Amino acid sequence: MLEAAEVGNKLDKKTFRKAAPKVRTALLEVQKRLAGTSLAPIIVVGGAEGAGKSETVSLLLEWMDTRGIETNVVWEPRDEERERPEYWRFWRLLPPRGKIGIFFGSWYTRPIVDHAFDRIDAATFERAMRRIRDFERLLTYETGPVLKFWLHLSRAQERKRLKQFAKDPRLRWRLHKNAKKYFQHYDDFRPVDEEMLRLTNTGYAPWTVVEAADDEYRNLTVATTVLQVLEEAVAEAEARARATRPHKPPALPKPKRANVLRNLDLAKKLSQKQYDQRLGAAQADVGRLTRKLAKRERALLAIFEGPDAAGKGGAIRRLTGGMSPYHYRVIGIAAPTDEERAHPYLWRFWRNLPRHGRVTIYDRSWYGRVLVERLEGFARRDEWQRAYDEINEFEEQLSEGGVIVMKFWIAISADEQLRRFKEREVTPFKQYKITEEDWRNRAKWEGYEAAACDMIERTSTSVAPWTLVEGNDKHMARVRVVETVRDRLRKEL
Amino acid sequence: MLEAAEVGNKLDKKTFRKAAPKVRTALLEVQKRLAGTSLAPIIVVGGAEGAGKSETVSLLLEWMDTRGIETNVVWEPRDEERERPEYWRFWRLLPPRGKIGIFFGSWYTRPIVDHAFDRIDAATFERAMRRIRDFERLLTYETGPVLKFWLHLSRAQERKRLKQFAKDPRLRWRLHKNAKKYFQHYDDFRPVDEEMLRLTNTGYAPWTVVEAADDEYRNLTVATTVLQVLEEAVAEAEARARATRPHKPPALPKPKRANVLRNLDLAKKLSQKQYDQRLGAAQADVGRLTRKLAKRERALLAIFEGPDAAGKGGAIRRLTGGMSPYHYRVIGIAAPTDEERAHPYLWRFWRNLPRHGRVTIYDRSWYGRVLVERLEGFARRDEWQRAYDEINEFEEQLSEGGVIVMKFWIAISADEQLRRFKEREVTPFKQYKITEEDWRNRAKWEGYEAAACDMIERTSTSVAPWTLVEGNDKHMARVRVVETVRDRLRKEL
């Protein structure tokens, strides 16, 4: 791909000056329309040192309304970033809907540099490129176009540029401190760049390789490409918004007669004495083990799903019983805030990831996407259908980043739920736990069962398996949860 | 104050067990009501090592709904915190309305330790205590009660506790790594603690000093105090919410006949040639100087206020013209997001503070509180009246934290505004800049003038003075802005 950008494309200043005002007005116009859509376009600017990355972006910022653009520079990770999975730093910089995010340095930087310097092998590099494809696909689906510009210089052009920059005090500072070193490795970088372009030049997020030696050509090419992509995307988003039909919940899925949930033996019980003994011992172990997390550069993320009144809250309280309040946080899923709605649905979970040494516990989780959002029609069919993959990829990233992911489904029978609902209605300090919505959800019991089985089937991975917990007996369920966490921590730490 | 907590308060286990269920149910009940109010109570837990801080909070977490509580541990600052004013780390941990924030380690920790070890003198310590009073007053006004518990042990009791903890492997980890060292300095800490309590035991945020040697007494004292304060605060907040009357904008203030704005000579002009020359030179200087910010551990925060069409956007574009896109961000003030509304009004500015080496430019700013919010009645009288102090305190903190604060008021005459409004209505790429609201604001010209004069008078401080810019001639205004920034940067760097 790079050779095609060494053909000598140029633009004279007069042509540029003639074209500029039109492009500028159109960019402002489309940016104003963009502000009213659900799009949050991303612009990635990569390429050779001295190729004019910052000049090009300066022009865009000059032409457009900077108040709607967030420019991000991603170099060395900060300490809070090092204590979390790699992509945490990118997720936290994603622009909200209606704005544009520009990235200097991006998810491409580390794998390219590492591979060019032989710090990672081809297979690891390819794996990093696959991760990028997954990430950009998710962004494209969720918040619109990912524009990627690669500003290319031939070896001779780059040498010339670097010399020119080095001589001129007004330009010198623009070079990255490693520019010279990188140029000495031009021949190591070039095949890696080619491979990167090949592996990530996808249909949904294609690269625009720009011949960068001529300023006017480069600037106008980038500006017109941005204009064209935004105009298309905004027009589509506006059409989609107009076409929105009144909300209608989908038909409920039916569970298979035999399934993993029905297979559970819900009659299992534990005596008070056994319960006290085993719970106390396991809690002490969990408390001790969670204090080891920091030293091992690990974190724990435990999520709880299951029908209303399954006993999630009670199990969570027993799990945290042995932990220091310094270490854990419990997050209950409520309606997303508007900032959360302004980002892809996984953003709210990325932003709350525990850092090394910490425990985060979710009472309900990202699986809402394929449970309540699927069943109530809050997510479109294509959205929940792709969510399984997105979630598996998310949990794989967490796991690679040192987060131990534990997922509990607490199962109860429909009869047991009814018994507990009735009990809640008459117990003063439990009344707040039962609402109209609980009864409405109960009416969809079989739909939820089917969706849960789909979910368990599609998201039980080796790094983050589901633990199905027999929940009719609360003693049983709580001991099971705390002991399972203990066993996993023992194994991992 | 501390001696009063060495009188031997105790509670037998039986009394505790009898009282506990009632307190627990009431805490859950008030927490549930709290979720529906605009309150975000803060609980600070301080005191001796081994006094049972984490045990006390564990009990609160066990008794209440952890999903509505954010527990924060504040020890050593992280790199992103070190690159910003000290209180940034506290602001970013403030809970949203409806939730409770618990702080282990807090704004008290650093000054107490520094003073006990003689790293800061009495005057600096008193200054830190004043800052705390300002902070807690603001929190109390804005988001409700700040509860502060000091768990106290006498010298003998603390010695006994530390020995007991050191012997028991199940307790040992609970001690801070400096616990022993701190105990050796018991006599240095004690007078500092006393002084701290005296200086910060305010009416709006009083301390509860708790005799901590007896677990049951300590736990029940804290729990009942939390219960009582929350019940009062929630009842008040509910009553306030019920009493809300339909919104009615206040009467507009009248400007004085002679005032700082009318004193400006708006006829000043600059020729195109002078403009090009001076602007280009100043831009280059500003570009060069902003690159120095990082090395000097400084940041720049420039805000722009002024009537609609005063030319704020144009001035900002000229100011950033010489800067690298790596370094600056322009933020336009739109309606706050719901997460921003869920925090004190200054929170949205704290969260976006530039770190060392960076420039943040605001097109409108926190001064909206005493301009549009005052004039439109979005802020109550008591709210905008105390805002001047709060803002001065905010800017003082920024300045101490290495942020260079620059404030520009771009002034134009009413006639010039009218001319520009009309021009905007007929220029295609400027039409987006003019709305109905602009015409409505224009009708209140004199009110805005009076409010601006009040603001300039009350918030022109030595660390962050206002620069009044004659804006009828755009050349004049832009050169003035860029040169003023250059001169300030030269002086500071």
Give a nutshell description of this structure:
Chain A is α/β, with parallel strands linked by helices.
Description:
Two copies of one chain form a homodimer. Chain A contains 21 helices and ten strands. Chain A has helices spanning about 15-35, 55-65, 80, 90, 110-115, 120-145, 155-165, 170, 180-185, 185-200, 215-245, 270-290, 310-320, 340, 345-350, 370-375, 380-400, 415-425, 435-445, 445-460, 475-490; strands at about 40-45, 70-75, 100-105, 145-150, 205-210, 300-305, 330, 360-365, 405-410, 465-470. In chain A, the strands form two sheets. The first copy, chain A, has a five-stranded parallel sheet with strand order 2-3-1-4-5. In chain A, strands 7-8-6-9-10 form a five-stranded parallel sheet, sandwiched between helices. In chain A, helix 12 packs parallel to helix 21 (about 475-490) and helix 13 packs across helix 21 (about 475-490). Chain A is elongated and about 85 Å long. Chain A starts with 12 loop residues before the first helix and ends with a helix. In chain A, about 40% of the residues are buried. The model of chain A has no long low-confidence stretch (mean pLDDT about 95).
